[in-house]
Amino acid sequence: MKFLDLNVGKEVKGTVRLPGSKSISNRVLLLAALASGGTHVRDVLVADDTICMLNALKVLGVSINQTDENDYFIQGVGGQFPIREADLFLENAGTAYRPLTAVLSLAQGHYRLYGISRMYERPIGDLVDPLRQLGADITYLGNDGFPPLEIKAAEIQADLLVVRGDVSSQYLTSLLIASPLIGRKLTIEVIGDLISQPYIALTLGLMSHFGVEIEQAGLRHFVSDNGLNYISPGEIFVEGDASSASYFLAAGAIGGGPVRVEGIGRNSLQGDVLFIKALEKMGACILQGDNWIEVRSPQSGRLTAINIDCNHIPDAAMTLAVVALFADGVTMLKNIASWKVKETDRLYAMATELRKLGAVVEEGPDFLRITPPINGNISPFVAINTYNDHRMAMCFSLVSLGASVRINDPTCVSKTFPNYFAEFAKVVKY
Question: pTM higher than 0.90, yes or no?
Answer without folding.
Answer: no
